[in-house]
Q: What sequence folds into this?
């Protein structure tokens, strides 16, 4: 797809900033077909599986909403006793990139949703020019 | 009475998993396709990121739920999502693939444990002919992984071919003493 290391490094920095705010176990940016693109994970996690599972959850979310005529996917939330997994698409990137963020157990949901959404916008700002150039 | 049972379709890219489900499903298949972002894009535009889903009515025996799984090893965890209630597996092969049976080898390496656990049928699709040689090579690969299964060439677009695969798995369940509690499953 022609996305080069410079964009990956910039995205990794954004993920690092997000995780550095506190309350997060890790963040993964994955391509829509489940391959890792950038990550900042502070837990022993199989990054390949994390990326693939995030892609599957978004694909299932898209499909469920389509089958139920419930509009476009905003985010997927998997709420567990030990943490919350928030997954969203980087906006205006043709669904190419998916941001998956795992919180710690005591993280407030509203705060996490806001910060993850803001991070997705910043990542989109990084990648949009490159994606547009690839399309042209 | 059994209310539902599952059949899984696995195989290399373009082997015909989604086509099989579309051929026999009573409902429009539910798909989770996404655009490819790697070399697979040279072969096909989209790939399954979670699963394909279809259903077949089996009369009084309930329903057979059809699941097509992604071809890439990174999605192997999806098998565990559908494992409960699974009757058997259809292992499809793209017999026309330019790289020969490399896709089958990769599928066998990914799913060897599951293929030892469940009855399965190996089904070369899009065979250009010379079936005996193809089946012989498939058999060698199965033996290499200490697996045994019927090999049945199909056209994944033909409902009769896919029904035959399901019937073979029902027969294996019956002969293997692992028949569902309701007794012999038959295609309604």
A:
């Amino acid at each position: 797809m022609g996305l080069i290391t410079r964009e990956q490094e910039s995205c990794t920095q954004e993920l690092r900033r997000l995780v550095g705010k506190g309350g997060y176990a890790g963040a993964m940016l994955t391509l829509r077909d489940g391959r890792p693109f950038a990550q900042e994970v502070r837990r022993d996690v199989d990054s390949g599986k994390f990326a693939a599972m995030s892609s599957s959850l978004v694909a299932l979310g898209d499909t469920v909403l389509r089958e139920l005529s419930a509009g476009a996917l905003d985010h997927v939330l998997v709420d567990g006793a030990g943490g919350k997994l928030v997954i969203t698409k980087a906006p205006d990137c043709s669904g190419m990139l998916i941001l998956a963020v795992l919180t710690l157990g005591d993280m407030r949901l509203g705060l996490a949703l806001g910060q993850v959404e803001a991070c997705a916008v910043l990542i989109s700002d990084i990648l949009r020019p490159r994606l547009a150039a690839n399309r042209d | 009475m059994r209310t539902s049972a599952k059949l899984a379709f696995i195989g290399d890219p373009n082997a015909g998993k989604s086509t099989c489900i579309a051929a026999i499903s009573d409902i429009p298949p539910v798909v989770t396709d996404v655009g490819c972002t790697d070399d697979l894009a040279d072969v096909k535009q989209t790939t399954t990121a979670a699963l394909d889903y279809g259903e077949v009515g089996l009369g009084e025996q309930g329903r057979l739920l059809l699941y097509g799984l992604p071809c890439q090893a990174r999605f192997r965890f999806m098998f565990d999502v559908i494992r409960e209630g699974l009757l058997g597996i259809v292992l499809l092969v793209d017999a026309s693939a330019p790289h020969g049976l490399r896709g089958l080898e990769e599928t066998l390496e990914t799913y060897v444990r599951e293929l030892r656990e469940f009855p399965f049928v190996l089904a070369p699709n899009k065979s250009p002919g010379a079936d005996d040689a193809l089946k012989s090579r498939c058999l060698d690969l199965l033996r290499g992984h200490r697996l045994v299964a019927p090999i049945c060439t199909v056209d994944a677009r033909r409902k009769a071919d896919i029904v035959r695969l399901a019937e073979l798995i029902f027969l294996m369940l019956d002969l293997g003493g692992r028949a569902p509690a309701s007794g012999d499953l038959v295609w309604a």
In short: Residues 56 and 155 of chain B are 19 Å apart (CA to CA). The first helix of chain B runs from residue 17 to 24. The two ends of chain B are 15 Å apart (CA to CA).
